Batch of 2 targets.
Target 1
Amino acid sequence: MTLMRFAWGPPRPALQGRGTEGRGLTDRYGQPGVGAYGMASGWLYRHVVYRNCAWPALRLSSVAAHVWSGVLGGIGGLTSFEGTMEAALAMINRNTAKVDESRNDSTIRRCIPAGVKSAGGIKSCSRHRWPDDYRTTRTGKPGRVPPPACIDRSTGAADTTTKYGKDRRLCFSPGSMAIRIPLWCFLWCCGPQCIRALPRLSSMCPGLLSDPDPAIKRIKFFLLPVGSSTALHDYSSDTSDLALNTATLGHNLDGFGAGWSPEQVIDACAARGYGGIVFWRREIGTRAFEIGERVRAANMQVVGLCRTPYITGSGAPKTLDEARASVEMAAALGTRVLTIVTGGTEPDTKGVVESRKVLAGRVAVLAEFAATMDVQIALEPLNPMFGGNRTCIFSVRDALDICGIINMPNVGIAVDVYHVWWDSALYDHLQQAGGRILGYHLCDWLENTGDMLLDRGMMGDGVADLRAIRQGVEDAGYTGACEVEIFSVRNWWQRDPNEVLDTIVERFRTVC
């Protein structure tokens, strides 16, 4: 919203008097100039349209629209009162109050459209409204001269007796308030609704957006004020964003669950309206491409893949070969998100500082490889109780710090309710994510947890504030799937998978 205000809104005092005139952002009076319109429109089209549109015709049209918006911005600045005043100042010799004919070709051509120029001086323009401080004589403020309407074209001298004030019609240029105010109000009030409609538009027009989620994140970043709360998406009758992590059926460990095949899981989820599935590597084997195609044939998505081996700690492999194989499996499945549980502290170290340095270096190497296959790396912080052997990052802030060190666009974070529900600063940290949230995992923390790893609760059975956490995730710009991941060796893994899947749908609609 700040960028839209800068492009279309009133002058920004912060730009005045700070050298912006030389860069074309404002004219000498602090008004948005050609550079402001061009820079704002160029930024929007580059980051919102061109980078996300898969249709060549629309990409071409975005470039054309970029150029045209720059032209309109230039015209708006030139035909508004500040642009014409600039021309008047350029043509009038301040020492004699005479029109300087010698500057007509060199200076004015850059300052005023040909329709306003004339051989003998400047035509009177009745479209512009001039402030009082411009209606002064040459003996007034330094540099203040009468506007073009006050120039006697017969003699070329400044008429110091005439005051401009008969015609005060507002100039309807692209930078005028007549256009700014309605557009401003529309973007502020209707922006969230437009964002919500984008996934539906993408499904109605396959291929319109090369990747809808990042596109929507960028658009939401531009249209909504940072830190503002938006209405939660209503899932009471919509399960298109619901995804099953197969660990909820016990498929992440040998000897647990009902032992359903991937095909059985896919068919059962599709029959209940799930939007996606997250598999574990042990289920996939060498069938990654086949399973991915089966999921898409059922009108679902492979939302992610769990997970790489540990990257740090005594349980981490000595090389990244297995982690690279995980990336290749994710690419074959057709998913863009590969989750990383980092691993514990490095051998012979104390605390987590050194372990995090090692983690950042190794993830950076892996991310470079993943980028070649269009795969994103999601760092998942774990509850502090898992420090030592399973993780060296314990909060969203810790994960974002690692992302900042790596500073690569395909490295982000996964937010798991089980691991972050306790953090009193969670909302503030989520708002700092800036589009780096790549996954959102649902479950609950039971009041009397019997096993720290394998006794997660079904949504609504515990003490986590699920709605508040989702509010923070959505306000941070996340528009992806809500992935249900429940490790429950004593309860849900003992039940019929059909019952588990039905309960997930019911809880997702009512408590999440």
Target 2
Amino acid sequence: MKVRDVVVLKEVADDLNDGKTFYDQREAGVGDYFWDSQLILYICL
């Protein structure tokens, strides 16, 4: 398995946090699902 460094720009982190907040405002806990699904995408890089 190769290990890679992934750099997440501040703007990207802000967008992810905004997305989590957006979904949590619609229904509690959905923001966590959004956040987890995004992390899985980064892990798969």
